[in-house]
Amino acid sequence: MAKRYKTTNILWDIDKDEILEKLDTMSVDEAAKALKCTEKEEKAFKAMSDEERDDFALSQIHHNVITAADFLGIPTEVEIPEDFDNNDEDFEELVSDWLSDTYGYCHEGFDLEELM
Known about the structure:
The chain is mainly alpha-helical. The chain is built from six helices and three strands. The model has no long low-confidence stretch (mean pLDDT 92).
């Protein structure tokens, strides 16, 4: 049986413009929920201007209230499909390309972990 792997600790390369683009597609209620606002923060968030909401969202991510990956809905851990040849000398590069192609974001690294 072929060994199975998963990637863990994926460090997605996400810039603030991608976060703000996603924020622009959300209703104020959806954004407040996605940003894990407290009740008090949610009330204030709804009264903010668009620019203030952008600043608040970036602040929430900067202060680790939520990760950029969570906000964008991309995983930080993924099982590698069974059809990958883990004996290929370029296995990590194949996984790297697959992650970027599948999720639409570049990354700055990941760990590989063998599944039992």
